[in-house]
């Protein structure tokens, strides 16, 4: 009798579980009227850590009369660092915090991780946000979400990724529908940064810049990738409504970057709401507490308009 050794191991058992079938985290109650599900796994990329999302939900969604609209917040950090639930230093003292306030206002808020530039270059980040939108749609019934009413919102690098995703994530039956996008002090045209920044403050040949690390090489050497990673490149008549906020004194991302995005949207037949805040620097440094709160209120009001029945119909008519 010949010893043939053990049976080959069934390699399909090594495959990761489907995030759409994993149990959801146990909810916490960080503030009155709010449920928080922290760290739900929405994607398991090969060779990298699982990607997670925090979900801020109304405690009693049935009071809203049905599934609730969704705001997806994308954190900043130069595509290199950042925390998924951090809106920046001006909002850290808020009690309740900005996401809890949105949940109290009747929104679900999703705050996803995404692969940073030290883990993967463009387009991995936008791919991750697209995966998150698909996961939210798949889990909509479990979470009480109306993903046909989804607004993307990001600050700085997160605003860039929110805009890029909003402009490239075409309506699909198996994913959330983006009905609006908010950007705060976000880059929008990477090849134009050398022109928009003060002379001597930006080197497109520098392989160590935030932009170079995102692109996988110096922008001057990766011109095609830089264009592809620029929201302005992807503006079309199908773009959703945009609210674009930027400080006039931004020393990191020139306000001209937001002007370029608004101009591209207007050229495609849209009417973006562009607000340039006098004296505002990056992260809203230089603005009064009242002006910072107004940025938040404008964002909330915009999300309400974009997720109302009238707003959704208007967005569909423009696509």
From TrEMBL:
Residues 1-27 are annotated as: Disordered. It comes from the Bacteria. It holds the Pfam family BD-FAE. InterPro entries: AB_hydrolase_fold, BD-FAE-like_dom, GDXG_lipolytic_enzyme. GO terms for molecular function: hydrolase activity. Residues 16-27 have a biased composition (Pro residues). The keyword Hydrolase applies. SUPFAM superfamilies: alpha/beta-Hydrolases (SSF53474). Gene3D superfamilies: alpha/beta hydrolase (3.40.50.1820). Residues 61-265 form the BD-FAE-like domain. Keywords: Hydrolase. This is BD-FAE-like domain-containing protein.
